Amino acid sequence: MESNMIYMPIVLAALGLIYMLVKKSWVMKQDAGDGKMKEISDHIYEGALAFLNAEYKLLSIFVIIVSVLLAIVSFIVPTTHWLIVIAFIFGAVFSAFAGNIGMKIATKTNVRTTQAARTSLPNALKISFGGGTVMGLGVAGLAVLGLTAFFIIFFHFFMGGEWTNTMDMTVVLETLAGFSLGAESIALFARVGGGIYTKAADVGADLVGKVEAGIPEDDPRNPATIADNVGDNVGDVAGMGADLFGSYVATVLAAMVLGNYIIKDMGGNIVNEGFNGIGPVLLPVAIAGAGIIISVIGTMLVKIKTNEAKEAQVMGALNIGNWTSIALVAISCFALCTYMLPETMKMEFFGEGLVDISAMRVFYATLVGLFVGGVISAVTEYYTGLGKKPILEIVQKSSTGAGTNIIAGLATGMISTFSSVLLFAGAIWASYAFAGFYGVAMAASAMMATTAMQLAIDAFGPIADNAGGIAEMSEQEPIVRERTDILDSVGNTTAATGKGFAIASAALTSLALFAAYVTFTEIDGINIFKAPVLAMLFIGGMVPVVFSALAMNAVGKAAMEMVYEVRRQFKEIAGIMEGTGKPEYDKCVAISTKASLKEMMLPGLLTIGFPLAIAFIPMIFGMNHQAIAEMLGGYMAGVTVSGVLWAIFQNNAGGAWDNAKKSFEAGVEINGEMTYKGSDAHKAAVTGDTVGDPFKDTSGPSMNILIKLTCLIGLVIAPILGGHTSETAVAVANEEIEIVKSNDTSSNEVEKQIEVTMEMDGDIAKAEVSIKTTMNGKTSTEIKKLEGTEEEVKAKIEEIKASLQ
Amino acid sequence: MESNMIYMPIVLAALGLIYMLVKKSWVMKQDAGDGKMKEISDHIYEGALAFLNAEYKLLSIFVIIVSVLLAIVSFIVPTTHWLIVIAFIFGAVFSAFAGNIGMKIATKTNVRTTQAARTSLPNALKISFGGGTVMGLGVAGLAVLGLTAFFIIFFHFFMGGEWTNTMDMTVVLETLAGFSLGAESIALFARVGGGIYTKAADVGADLVGKVEAGIPEDDPRNPATIADNVGDNVGDVAGMGADLFGSYVATVLAAMVLGNYIIKDMGGNIVNEGFNGIGPVLLPVAIAGAGIIISVIGTMLVKIKTNEAKEAQVMGALNIGNWTSIALVAISCFALCTYMLPETMKMEFFGEGLVDISAMRVFYATLVGLFVGGVISAVTEYYTGLGKKPILEIVQKSSTGAGTNIIAGLATGMISTFSSVLLFAGAIWASYAFAGFYGVAMAASAMMATTAMQLAIDAFGPIADNAGGIAEMSEQEPIVRERTDILDSVGNTTAATGKGFAIASAALTSLALFAAYVTFTEIDGINIFKAPVLAMLFIGGMVPVVFSALAMNAVGKAAMEMVYEVRRQFKEIAGIMEGTGKPEYDKCVAISTKASLKEMMLPGLLTIGFPLAIAFIPMIFGMNHQAIAEMLGGYMAGVTVSGVLWAIFQNNAGGAWDNAKKSFEAGVEINGEMTYKGSDAHKAAVTGDTVGDPFKDTSGPSMNILIKLTCLIGLVIAPILGGHTSETAVAVANEEIEIVKSNDTSSNEVEKQIEVTMEMDGDIAKAEVSIKTTMNGKTSTEIKKLEGTEEEVKAKIEEIKASLQ
């Protein structure tokens, strides 16, 4: 049993995927409605597919370039294996495939939800949430399947399927990091590109349609309306899916890396504990696997009974599913920690040496993660939820104009960093105190275990939103729109809390990756009292800010192109406003697609280029590799700290503005007067929402990927920055360890013994030659330290050996 | 000569202050204009004084509380001397006094500038810049005078006026840190309180006056107009003055601390090099002293000749003065570095050991500082200057509404962090590479040497602004307003670049303080690979964000109170709009005063409370002091990195919005059409400016103080966190070093030698007892390490000694 545990996650992932397929075919079998609805839905489906295809075409070029670069590196740098290229490609393909599944099902589910809403709210929820479930399980299932499969393959390839030593496992995990890198790279472009797409279409449609032409939202006469609905799927569904796919893989990977070092700290041998001797490495994968089945159970619990249900009931149904999943994950963490880990482990704590850590403490760390995942949603809900104090204050401030509304929104977003950061800082501290950085990574892993459930809840929102749009465009009875609006309203709340979850997961994942990076490079921590490291901390802190600005500007540019196109169509197409002329939806879709793909380049380059520049430019100037590793670590820390702050700030400010605007729909009391849509205060709130749109849907969510990808690139570069010896370097060292005995070289009895150890630090070989001379029963030892290129050092060693004989 | 160098700065400072008095009496002798002008000017003067008095009353309570706390600490903690209380009080008083001088002269100069502008632009410049000069020399002169005087006193008190050892000098400088702490505390409240005051009055006056009542800016019928003009002085003059006073003192102090460690690294003795053996400690003070005289020369060069001069000529005159000062500082740095430093010094570089550093390399480091001071102004000017690309883009975006205007402004502020941070990071790296953290501190010191000149240029702006206001309110000929507008326009540019200078100085000062802190506490650097340190880095990063939000909200609250009062007066005072009823200016002044003093509490508490909580809460729980010191260091780094980013972001975004709005005054081309004031695009730009106001005048500039004060509090706490042994601890160690010789204790010839070294780590005593036993000519050494309370360890040592005899 124990030695088969390695296959457990793959089986559970497969089960999850099978359930996903069953659910998918059930959704697809539902009634897709009549002609007009179907037509609109098909437009959205095709638009989304057009974007995905264009994006994948572009990304395949990117994947090929990176693959070639990785291949070159793997042939030049002895510590990197070429299999990382394969892993990278599969990571990219799996991530794209997961996004594809989500987008397809979402664009098929929307119309079926509208159709169901004509007769039954419970059914509409069942279908829309069913679509979300397919998305969630698709992402989580593929993540666990891909990661586990590659782990098993590499584990057998490099280690023969049984624990050998830390070094070999390091090679396994470094190669596996390629999978994560592939996934996260695709996620970057999906999030940024999708974010630009959705807001460009949204802003473009609103500016000309609502403001200039005075037609309502989702009006079929607006040429940008299809692009707008496509955007919801591209940004919120595919983008979020790719984001969490990346987090899921990266978190588990980081925990595995840190698990490997526990085995090292325990003397490199816990074989007698079963699980192929790699229990701590396997544990995070096992929890991820369990999470998939738990999420299936959780999704089954989401249902309402009556057609009369309101937002509260729908929200309640989602909460039951969510909290049950979290509770079940806690139970499974307890079971798996106690089952798979040695009762007591040894972990190296920085500056404290080896400390005994019990399996229970790892379990406590996972509880910290689950706690953070739950509480961060509540915090986000407080700062962005309808009817909450911060929103009411923004509403009040709207009465004195857009300026005060915007100041209030900015301040709300900024203030919201307080509790979130204290929560994260507390979580880091607590999980570290329980079980070191392995504890931090396990906290993240536990939190991420419910990813499938979280995604189902998340993806259900845009589906309901789209369903409402289709109801509007196909001119259904008002009751249909009322029902989809209930779902949509709940979806808005879950979208905000989902973003909180995504940030929390990104923050913990990045820290785990950061820890894995430091451990990989074997540097003495990251000391910011060294000026170059401190300088990099500054630069790292700046990157998320500049990234956000680029993303915001990109939305502005793309939106302007959309505005010109919509204006052109209104002017040139005869009868478009009377509903007799047909708008050219596809032109708007094409513009959004092209602009978003073009505009995602620069932020992408910034994300990938900076860490590479920091690593390789000083390397060209011959700087010490360990010093570079520390600088890069400082950069990673800067990006993470600043990125988390800007993510919280932007997401919550955007969410707050959005709901302040929405508050006017039901009417709000300002200075004792009821104020509604169309008032000056409402107009001010609309301006606030315009500012918030790119914040919450483009730059804010992109921060997650930025910080994860930065840390992941660091992890992949780590072997080049070296410190640790792997593969060939080990081989060299082993080959050179030999003993020379030479009795009687002169009249005295002399015995000489020579021991050589050699290590590669990047390109530099370091060797220690110890020569023991025993003469007349007395022993003296001479140690020579050598450094230089591999050839030089080897030649020198031969010379020394020759001199002794 | 060499041993009198210590008095040189005090003499130069006194000379500067004498010149200041001469200049002041010249300004005061100028014609203060006729009845109406004088009346308005008196209103402003009295309003400003009322605020200062109320503020000082409140702050004296604060100073008393902190003094008592410091006194208690100095009696409990053996490593802190009670003289720090005296230094603290004087620092606070000097800073307040400097602010007072500036405010008084500014409010007296404004009306004289208006009067001069009736006949001559060159004279108007001469007077307004003369007022600025008084302010600049007052601040810089008092800073150098106070700091040097206390240094000399403490140097004689603790060391007898001649180098003894590093430990004694550490005590001198730690006590001197009290002066800096006092100055920076006052600066915090002056900046934050002043920032809230000025914007509350401004927004309140505009919202009701301009928007609701439709009367122009600075109209005497507006009851808030005096408060608005007072605000310019309170915020821009007194706030900026206190800010730079604090920077000046803190920078020099930090450089002195690091200079002390150079002497330590050189073996604790460079007496033969002259300068009382403290050349490296004295150098930054000497440069500061030279800077004062250089600034006097610089200010003398600022003049224009013709009444027909335009902005460019005025700007040119200021530039000549500024660049000449910078060039002269460079020359004096060369002279002083080569004169006062040993030709070659030894400095400990972290992880590299002792490195030989020549005096020339310190000079190069000062050049780095001067370079940064010059370039940062150019960078700021690019992102916020009229007619520059970023501003033109914001103007274009205004045509599609306030939303796009604001997005563009936010993005500009965010993008501007790129070049500024790269510049700072480069400066840190370069000055560190030249001469370690001493180099970083010397770079900051050189940059700050022109403070008097910078402040003169800065303070001249609000004086000209006020002069224009007085011209408007007293209904002068249009030519008068035209002339003051030329000065005001130049003043707006120098205000923006001055903010850049203030940020740069705060950033470098904080880093120098940070370095001094690490050196003081003698921790092994700040390793962010330890989770608690990383957690504090996160929390530190969050504080500037929350601080900014609090400051912004404070402006909003105070402005609302002002709005209600102005509305009330418009309604209740008969004939106010016709000019027959007299508005109650003093009520508005009182509201702004009260509100700003109330609202500055929370941000102040946040700034001071967080570092104290981080230091003392874990101490109560018995955490290791060194670990706490490292955590606090992480917090300081987080605040600095995040604070610098948010300062740049907020200042530049605010400046950009302001000038985008101003662009409409001369007219701008949007989509091929000339657009002017009053257009929809202009209204959108006004909204942007409203958002930018608290950014650039309240929260943005407060960041400087936040980061400096945080690092300074760390430095003052440092002795408690310990690591280094001072005073009593040294005494213990010295007392215990003794040698026990005991010949012949048995039949063999045995000699035992015992050496004891003992150090205090906070409350914990650590001792190393090495016992050398020589028997039959062979020596063996046994080392015992002891740890515990002082009594325990001492008892144990006695026990060991007894056992040997």
UniProtKB/TrEMBL annotation, chains A, B:
Marked site positions, Determinant of potassium dependence: A495
Protein localization: Cell membrane; Endomembrane system
InterPro entries registered for this protein in UniProt: PPase-energised_H-pump
Regulation: Requires K(+) for maximal activity.
Signal peptide: none
EC number of this enzyme: 7.2.3.1
Residue spans crossing the bilayer: 6-22, 58-76, 82-103, 134-159, 171-190, 245-263, 283-302, 323-342, 362-384, 405-429, 435-457, 501-520, 532-552, 601-621, 627-649
Membrane topology listed for this record: Multi-pass membrane protein
Reaction(s) catalysed (UniProt annotation): Na(+)(in) + diphosphate + H2O = Na(+)(out) + 2 phosphate + H(+)
Superkingdom of origin: Bacteria
Main location: membrane
Record carries keyword Translocase: yes
Pfam families xref list: H_PPase (PF03030)
Enzyme class, UniProt record, top EC level: translocase
Keywords, comma-separated and alphabetical: Cell membrane, Ion transport, Magnesium, Membrane, Potassium, Sodium, Sodium transport, Translocase, Transmembrane, Transmembrane helix, Transport
Cofactor: Mg(2+)
Family under the similarity heading: Belongs to the H(+)-translocating pyrophosphatase (TC 3.A.10) family. K(+)-stimulated subfamily.
Subunit structure: Homodimer.
The protein's role, per its UniProt record: Sodium pump that utilizes the energy of pyrophosphate hydrolysis as the driving force for Na(+) movement across the membrane.
Name under which the protein is recorded: Putative K(+)-stimulated pyrophosphate-energized sodium pump
Gene responsible for this protein: hppA
